[in-house]
Design brief:
- With 364 residues, the chain is of the alpha/beta class.
- The protein has a single domain, classed as Aldolase class I (TIM Barrel), CATH 3.20.20.
- The protein is built from 13 helices and 10 strands.
- The strands form 2 sheets. An 8-stranded parallel barrel has the order 1-2-3-6-7-8-9-10, surrounded by 6 helices.
- Helix 7 links the parallel strand 7 and strand 8.
- Helix 2 crosses helix 3 and helix 3 runs parallel beside helix 6.
């Protein structure tokens, strides 16, 4: 720990491209408010631009699908078709004008894709007959890697500062990292083979995007079949090799003990903040809803934080955090409050499915 850690409002230089104006990024948040064809809606545009105007140093989109078969949610933003470009260009321009770095999160749901949302059967790293999931062939894995790269190139064409590769939360890339992935080809079995897909996505993006294009990666340190020791080793490799500009560790609860008792004795984030960075920035996410909790992450060694719930409740969380005593509004919260904070109706309805988040409307 370091009490001399930088302020939440100190700029953060990244390995490539422009600096973040502060140490707070909008976490990539599912919001269900774009169009069914993946084009951005006015509601999603307004939600994101309002966070940039509210002072966040980086604004990242929700998970954006890299292939039609990878769609995981109704009204999910897409980046897998040139039809998505016009809306993405509009968004990138507005985020830059508001002073925030801009990033598109690249995601494929893999075996978690709902059958009723995609044009075919779901595909993943492994067969799952109970859910009707078919394992990708080796050639199809290579094609899926190319889809990620093409999606990143599309984000670059749209004018974004960078992309984040979603390797967390049990989606396709995380399905390959799963210790149960016993594929017989070069994408399964050993830890090295199971990490190959995400490493090839990163390498392809780095080779084919402009020199100052920023690439981030999100990893889950536990759950979803992944092993904490393996993820820690992969994180160390990504930090060391310098192909990415930032690493985003999605803890769900940043200060919790790991679920695996063999790793108890340190908080989950502490197993990553002690790694040598080699010039790559490290961010953490999970239940950071106050200036004090965000600041504590920097004290414990993170370079920046990704704010989710706090950013839903307050579009200007980053600005409010100048007050060291600031804490997000208590839950449940009214629909009127969320609407005033720039959430569209579909997003508010989605948050109402989270127990205790949205206050029930009083009877007339």
């Amino acid at each position: 720990m370091s009490e001399t850690a930088p302020s939440l409002h100190a700029p953060l230089s990244l390995r490539r491209g422009p600096a973040m104006r502060n140490r707070m990024a909008l976490a990539p948040l599912t919001n269900l408010q774009s169009h069914d064809d993946g084009t951005i809606s006015d509601d999603e545009f307004a939600w994101l631009v309002k966070r940039a105007a509210g002072g966040f140093g980086m604004v990242m989109t929700c998970a954006a699908s890299t292939h039609a078969l990878g769609k995981g949610f109704p009204r999910q933003l897409g980046v897998h078709d040139d039809a998505h470009l016009a809306g993405l260009e509009r968004l990138a321009t507005a985020l830059r004008k508001a002073g925030a770095l801009s990033s598109v999160q690249l995601q494929h749901s893999g075996g978690r894709a709902p059958r009723d949302l995609i044009p075919g059967d779901p595909v993943g790293a492994m067969d799952d007959p109970k859910r009707g999931v078919r394992a990708l062939s080796t050639g199809e894995v290579e094609r899926a890697i190319e889809d990620f790269i093409l999606a990143g190139l599309r984000a670059e064409r749209a004018g974004f500062d960078g992309v984040e590769v979603h390797g967390a939360h049990g989606y396709l890339l995380c399905q390959f990292l799963d210790t149960r992935n016993a594929r017989a080809d070069r994408y399964g079995g050993s830890a090295e083979n199971r990490a190959r897909m995400i490493l090839e996505v990163i390498a392809g993006l780095r080779a084919r995007t402009r020199p100052d294009f920023q690439i981030g990666v999100r990893l889950s340190p536990e759950r979803y079949g992944v092993d904490l020791g393996e993820i820690r080793a992969l994180a160390a490799r990504l930090l060391r090799e310098g192909q990415i500009d930032y690493l985003d560790i999605s803890c769900w609860d940043t200060f919790k003990q790991p679920e695996d008792s063999a790793w108890h004795g340190r908080t989950l984030m502490d197993w990553f903040t002690d790694l040598d960075r080699h010039g790559t920035a490290l961010g953490v996410a999970g239940k950071l809803t106050s200036a004090a909790s965000a600041r504590q992450c920097l004290v414990r060694g993170a370079d920046f934080v990704l704010i989710g719930r706090g950013a839903i409740l307050h579009h200007d969380f980053a600005r409010r955090a100048e007050d060291a005593d600031f804490a997000s509004a208590a839950l449940p919260i009214s629909r009127a409050h969320l609407a005033a904070e720039g959430l569209g109706g579909d997003f508010i309805d989605y948050m109402a499915t989270w127990p205790g988040f949205v206050a029930e409307e009083e009877a007339a």
